[in-house]
Specification:
alpha+beta, 2 domains, 8-stranded mixed beta sheet, two-stranded antiparallel ribbon, globular
């Protein structure tokens, strides 16, 4: 037990920089030295509770209901288009430009079976540039720019019709992966509209960061990962601690978190930093908003040194949310974001 307490103490200290804060009081407590009893309680929370609610708030604004009747997918696409258009400016676009948009969704209780991390990747074609030959891209035109885009969203192949995800099954399976009886499933890479429909069906909160501009080398890594997922050689398992190393099955987080190699984990852009901590305890925090925030933390820590990420990332301030509201101007909604818009369809 003492060893477990020391492990939890180390994890809390190491990870507090990237976990989204849950208030000033909690921040003050984290800064203090964790005593053995508190460590024991934290360990139990990590290992036996379905979630660790560490997402938090900056100074919140009122939820925006101005686009309430616009479907969630359209709200998100419109926001992406506006943000990318602002980066491109009004002049001639002679070179291809590349962007990533990380996402997460989760329910009020942050249950792992109702949480998901995914990422969209965009190429805005330079004037006169031909589209790529890779299949499965969504292609279109916005204003004067042609673009192509795809999403990495790894879930069981029938998740749209059978959304009952097995994460842990069996006593002690959260601690000991060999005790987990959850089966391996055939995986499928869902498109953005399909993924957001999953969130709407569960009335989840959806968060997005970016768009962030990246270099072509990073875009190529994302294409390589899409081809791996679409190739049918790897399956899906939510608890992939025993199946990721040999590329048997991975979860949504690792599908978007390690393009060069799945084990040891790289970052989405090959940072090589997302390795398991002792006893895989960090695994129990890696879903929903905190899961995607973890990936972004690794991007900001190392990827810019490789020159693949072309702009700074502020994990807290850049997060924008979309929250479900059954009626216009509802109060008391589940809103884990500093800024958010409402949706109902």
């Amino acid at each position: 037990m003492a060893r477990r307490a020391r492990l939890t103490n180390e994890l809390v200290n190491n990870e507090r920089k990237w976990l989204l804060p849950s208030g000033r009081g909690v921040q003050r407590k984290i800064k203090r030295r964790i005593n053995p009893l508190a460590s024991w309680v934290a360990t139990c929370a990590l290992l036996f509770s379905p979630c660790v609610p560490v997402h938090g708030i900056l100074r919140k604004r009122d939820i925006d209901f101005s686009n309430y009747d616009v479907p969630l997918y359209e709200q998100i696409v419109n926001r992406i288009k506006a943000k990318v258009a602002a980066r491109l400016g009004e002049g001639v676009n002679t070179q291809d430009r590349y962007f990533i948009i990380p996402f997460a969704y989760q329910d009020r209780w942050i249950k792992p079976q109702l949480s998901h991390s995914f990422i969209s990747v965009i190429r805005v074609l330079g004037d006169g540039k031909p589209p790529s030959l890779t299949s499965g891209f969504r292609r279109g035109r916005y204003k004067n720019w042609n673009f192509e885009a795809f999403t990495i969203s790894w879930v069981p192949h029938d998740f749209d019709t059978n959304p009952h995800l097995c994460v842990f099954d069996g006593f002690g399976s959260r601690i000991f992966p060999k005790l987990n009886k959850c089966p391996i499933s055939v995986g499928r890479n869902f498109k953005l509209d399909e993924t957001l429909k999953l969130a709407v069906n569960k009335k989840n909160a959806v968060g997005m960061w970016g768009p962030y501009e990246i270099k072509k080398a990073a875009f190529d890594l994302a294409v390589k990962r899409k081809q791996l997922l679409d190739g049918g050689t790897i399956d899906y398992r939510a608890d992939d601690r025993l199946t990721r190393k040999d590329r048997v099955a991975i979860n949504c987080f690792h599908a978007m978190a390690g393009l060069e190699e799945l084990y040891p984990n790289g970052g989405f852009l090959g940072t090589g930093l997302l390795r398991n901590s002792p006893a895989d305890v960090v695994f129990f925090r890696m879903w929903g908003i905190n899961g995607t925030a973890r990936v972004l933390f690794e991007y900001t820590k190392s990827v810019r040194d490789k020159g693949l990420l072309l702009e700074p990332v502020d994990i807290k301030k850049d997060l924008y949310g979309f929250v479900y509201a059954p009626e216009r101007n509802n109060r008391g909604l589940y809103d884990p974001f500093p800024n958010a818009s409402a949706y109902h369809q």
